[in-house]
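Dear colleague,

Thank you for sharing your sequence with our group. We've completed the structure prediction you requested, and as agreed, I am returning the results in plain text so they can be pasted directly into your records. Please verify that the sequence below matches your submission; if there's any discrepancy, let me know and we will rerun it promptly.
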Amino acid sequence: MSLIKIADIAHVRFTAPDLEQMAAFLGEFGLKAERATDGVLYARGAGPQPFLHATAEGEPGFAALGLRADSLTDLERLAQAEGVAMEDLDAPGGGKVVRLRDPDGRMVEVVAGQAQAAPLPLAPPQPHNSAAAHPRQRAPLRLPRGPSTVVRLGHCVLEVRDFRTSEAWYKSRFGFITSDEIQPAPGMAIGAFLRCDRGETPTDHHTLFLLQSPRAPAFNHAAFEVADQDDLMRGHDHLKLAGRTPAWGVGRHILGSQVFDYWKDPWGHELEHWTDGDLFTAADGSNIADMQTLLGVHWGPLHPMMSGAAQ
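Please find the predicted structure tokens below.
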């Protein structure tokens, strides 16, 4: 049993020495960034969440993971169990926040009661013809140029010192369920894809991935869902033309099945565009996978770790 069951990931926080540079990158990535009166740069997507990405001025770094509780009642239960205060959240959307430190000392902000933002318009999906069906007839496909349309934040990957310790901490507080545990050898677990427990409601294959790493504690990447595959490829071309730094992609993951495209912000933090991922309910259980499956792809370039080993 866990203290609460979170509803989803809420946001990621960073620090950077130049907020104008960060705002320019985020705009090219497909987020809408604005500087608040407190000096923090907040960026939202097209969905109803008031912000997905926040940057305060400072040395480059990852500052916090944000998770969204189902209700203020759940947030109060968490605060009481942890012996911490439930505070006002001074950020777009307001609401309340409980701040905790995970076993690696990383800040985890659990929020509830935020006011939703008005969703931004999405272009209607274009019908796609295949050998099996031809829904688009007597009309050409025309896609506008520009950045991807980021809709929401989907997951975050954190590198941890001790996987089992971190797994127990996150599961006992937030109700995560293992989708795939990573075992390089039988019985030797070094990480897991964790999804929210939403009962019978399907949820993303993973909201959090914990990976034991000699670099820990470290931020690995945060992943943002875009409108569809055409939108992802449009954004790929836009970032490439803007001279931004690619990290990995475009391809389709095996675990989670997402079409992915990874880029680096001006300070080397990896942000992913993804679309078309797997959804599971609580009843769908857990699986075990090896490192080759973790880093493998259905199509697209090999992970840099695998391509380097192959050379």
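Summary note from our side: The chain has one domain: 8-114+150-310.

Kind regards,
the structure core
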